[in-house]
Amino acid sequence: MTATDQLLFEGADWDFRTLQRICDACEHVARDELGLDVYPNQIEVITAEQMLDAYSSVGMPLFYKHWSFGKHFAFQEASYRKGLMGLAYEIVINSSPCISYLMEENTATMQTLVIAHAAFGHNHFFKNNYLFKQWTDADGILDYLEFAKRYVAHCEERHGRLAVEHTLDAAHALMSHGIDRYPGKKSLDLRAEEKRAGRRRAHEESAFNDLWRTVPAGKVKSGAILDVERRRQMLGLPQENLLYFLEKTAPRLRPWQRELLRIVRHIAQYFYPQSQTKVMNEGTATYVHYRIMSRLHQQGRLTDGNFLEFLQSHTNVVFQPEFDDPRYSGFNPYALGFAMMQDIERIVTNPEAEDREWFPDIAGTGDTMGVLRDIWANYRDESFISQFMSPRLMRHFRMFHLHDDPEDRSGILVDAIHNERGYRRLRRELARQYDVGFIDANIEVVDVDLAGDRRLMLRHTVVKGAQLSEADTKRVLQHLADLWSYDVSLVESDASGTVLKEYVANPRNISVAA
Amino acid sequence: MAIHIVDRRLNPGSKSLENRQRFLRRAKALVQGAVKKSSQDRDIKDVLEGGEVSVPIDGMDEPRFRREGGTRDMVLPGNKKFIEGDILPRPNPSGGKGRGAGEGDSEDTFRFVLSRDEFVDLFLDDLELPDLAKRKLAEVESQGIRRAGYTTSGSPANISVSRTVSRALARRVALRRPRPEVLAALEAELEDCRDEARRAELMAEIEALKAKIRRIPFIDPIDIRYRRFETVPKPVAQAVMFCLMDVSGSMTEHMKDLAKRFYMLLYVFLKRRYRHVEIVFIRHTDRAEEVDEQTFFYGPASGGTLVSSALQAMHDIVRSRFRPDDWNIYAAQASDGDNSYADGEVTSRLLTDMILPVTQFFAYLEVGQENGLSYEMPNSSLWTLYEGLRASGAPLSMRKVNERSEIFPVFHDLFQRRSQQERTGS
Hints:
The complex is a heterodimer of chains A (about 525) and B (about 425).
Chain A: H1 16-33, E1 41-46, H2 48-56, H3 67-81, E2 90-93, E3 98-103, H4 108-128, H5 130-135, H6 141-159, H7 161-173, H8 190-206, H9 211-214, H10 228-234, H11 242-249, H12 255-276, H13 278-298, H14 304-317, H15 333-349, H16 353-358, H17 368-378, H18 381-388, H19 391-397, E4 400-404, E5 412-417, H20 423-433, H21 436-439, E6 442-448, E7 456-461, E8 467-468, H22 470-484, E9 488-493, E10 499-505
Parallel strand pairs in A: 1-3, 7-9
Antiparallel strand pairs in A: 2-3, 4-5, 6-7, 9-10
Helix pairs in contact in A: 1-4, 1-13, 2-3, 4-13, 6-7, 6-8, 6-12, 7-12, 7-22, 11-12, 13-14, 13-15, 15-17, 18-20
Chain B: E1 4-7, H1 17-26, H2 28-40, E2 51-56, E3 67-68, E4 72-76, E5 87-88, E6 109-114, H3 116-126, E7 141-151, H4 161-174, H5 180-192, H6 196-215, E8 226-235, E9 238-246, H7 253-273, E10 276-284, E11 288-291, H8 293-298, H9 307-321, E12 328-335, H10 344-358, E13 361-367, H11 381-391, E14 397-401, H12 404-425
Helix pairs in contact in B: 2-3, 5-6, 7-12, 9-10
C-alpha cells in the first residue's frame, strides 16, 4: 500500500492505477475510522451509452427483454441528446459483490467522490439495514436476474413473443401491488428459487402424458358451497399482494405464466426496501462521502483545488430549493438525509439544552459513528424522520405544513409551522409522507365468488378522499381480468364502508389464457 | 480485501437495442402514423433522413393504480411569512394539481429519434412494398473489374511480384538451395587455403553446391502467380429523376399532392439503389421551365397546356447535363391529362424519338379529382395519345390515380409489371 500522506492524484486525469489507489485510501478511512462494514466491492467503468442502457433496465446489469424498457431508453436517449438531462455519476447495485458503475468521463475527484459514496456509503447501508437484510438477497440477485432473463427468453421461444408480452404487461401493471409488506413470510432465497423453478419444469416435462388431454372431464364435484369464512381462509384472504394471489389461485393461468408473475413479484420485492429508504440511503452515502473526502483532504491526499471541486458538486447534490422556487420538486432526499445525519452528529458531540430534552438517549454520548451505524441498521425513512428530525433542523429548513381540503372553499390551511406548537405535528406529517402505507393505494382481494361466476372482488380503502384515477384503473383492471380470466370488480369505499365507486372488468379473449 | 476494478467500456454497447426494436414493433401503428405525417412536411430529398418523430403516449402507456384528489397534507421547506392558522388562497382551480400530480404528466407526448434505416423501413412498410428492393429494374450495366485472388496463368503485365517472390523463397528454403553467402565463404576459404587435400575437398564441395544451385532455380515457372481479375456487372451508380408536371390552372392542390407522393416514392426507391440521385423538376404550362422543388409544388403559374414543351426541356437538359451513358434516367410525368390537340403529334415524336430511347423508365401518372372514380373518367387527350404510343410498342407505363391510398398500389404495380415483362423477355 502506498504511503498515506501522498497525493492520490493531481489534476483531473485518472487511470486504473489511480482508481486502485483511491479505493484503497477510501477503504482505509471507511473501515478503520468510520467502522463501516461492506460487501466486497466491484467497480466497473462504463461509457455514457452504457449508462443509458443501465437506466432503461432499472439500473440492473442484466434484465429480461421487454418493450417498456425500450420505451424508457428511447425517451431518455432523446432527452439526454437534447441536453435536458444529465446522467448520474454512478449506479450502485445491491448485490454481493456490490457493483458500482462509474462513468468514464468523470474527473479523478468525481471518481473519488463516487467511490466513497457508492462503494462505501450505499454498500454499508445495503449490507446492514434491516429492511434490506429482510427482503433482499444480495448474494442471489444477479444469478436470479440471469435466470429470469433466460426464462423469459425461453418462454418466448416456446409460447410466442406476444403471449409472453401480454403476461408481462399485466404483471408490470400490478407490480406495485406485488409486494409482501409485512414480515412473517420467510425471506427470499433466490438461488433456491431458481433451482426450484428448474425442477418444476423438468417434472412437468417428464410427467407429461398426452392421454390426459383426451380423458373426458367428469361432472364438477363442488357439492356444498363453502361458507364465506372458510373460503376466505383457504384462499388466504384478504390478500394485498395481488400478484401473489394470482400466481397461486388464478384458475386458468399456464404454469409458465405463474412463473413470470413470480419473477416480476420477486423483482418488485427486491426494490421494495429501496423505495422505503430513499432519504436514509442517500443521506448515509452522502454523509460517508463527505466524511471520507474531508479526511482525505486533511491527510493531504487531495489538493485544495480538487477538494474545492468536490465541495462544489457536493453542494449541488445537497441543494434544497424552497417551496416557491421554480426548481422545487419536493424534498431532495440527498439534502434532507445529509442534513439529518450531520444534525445527529452535532447532537451526539455538541448538544444544546433543546437537544438533550428531545433526544436524551443520544445527546452528548460522543460516539457519532456508533449512533449513526445503529440508526442506519434499524430504521427506515418513516421511523427515522419521526424519531430523529430535530426542532433545529425544522427551523433550518423553515418547514411548514399545509392542509389542503378541496371541500374547504376558503383556501389552503397552514396547519403547523416551525415553532414550539408545531414541531411534533410537522415531524409526524413529514414522516407520513415517507410511509409506504400512505404512498401506495391500499387495494386488497376480498373475495372470490366460487359458486357463481368466479368473479374476483377487490376493495380499495380510500384514505383522505384520494380515489383512483379512472382511466389508469380501468386499464390495470383489464390486465387483471385477463390474468384472472373471469370478471374482476373493484369497489372503492371509505373507512365507514360507504361505496364511492365501482369498477367491473371483463377478460378479453386472449388465446394464451385459454 | 481486494477491490475488483473492471473496465467495461469495451463491452458491446446498445444492450437496449432489442428492447428498442420491441418498442418500435409495439408502437408500430403510432410510429408509422408519425412517420407518414412527418414525411408530408418534408422535402422529397429529406424524406430518407430519419429524425425525430413524436407519438402520443396512448396505447403504449404502462398503467398503474394511481390516486388523485382528496385531502392533501404536505410539509414544505422555505416558510417566509406564514403562521399557523393562515388560509392561503388556492392559486387557480386547476393549479392545485400542478406540482404534486406526479409521474404521468411529463410523458403525454413522447418524442424520440428514429434512425435513417428505421425511418425508411417504416416508410416503405407503410407502402406495403416489403420486397421492393428485390425487384429487378432494367438498368444500364457497365462492366467493372474487381480483384479476385491469384492465378497460375495470365498476362505478364499482371505478374504479382511479391506473391511470386515469396513462393520462390519458400520453395528455395524447402529444397535447401545453398545461399550465396555460403558459397562465397567457401570460395574465400579456397583462395586462402594452401593445403591440397583441403583444396580438393573445398572445390568438390563448391562444385556440388553450384550444381545444386543450377538445379534449383531462383525463380521457377511454378512460382509465378498472376493477379486475377474478374469482371463484374457494375450498375451505373448515379441516376437522375425527372419530375414533369403540368401546373396549369386545371391542376388542383389535391392533384399536386398525389404527384408529390408518387415522386417521393420514386425517389426513395431510386435512393435505395443508386449512390447518387439527382432530381430535376420541370413544370410546364404552355411553356416549360426548370425550377426548384418549392416552386415546383407550390409556385403559382397559369397558362395553357403544351406537354411537348416539357419534353423538349427535358431533352435539352439531358443533352447538356446528363449523358445517358453515365446516368440512369428516370422520368415521371404527372398531369390531369389536358393537352392542346395540336400538340399531340409533336409530343409523340419527341417522346418516341428523343426521350424514350435514353430513359430507363418513363411513367405517366394521370391524377384526377378527389372522389372521382378512375374507370368513370373519359380518357383524356393525353391518355389517348400515350395509349396509342404504347399500343405501337413504346415502353411507357401509365396509370390513373384519384386517391392518396391508390398511390402505393399503383407504384407497386408499376414496378412489378415491369419486372414481369423483363422476365418474359429474357
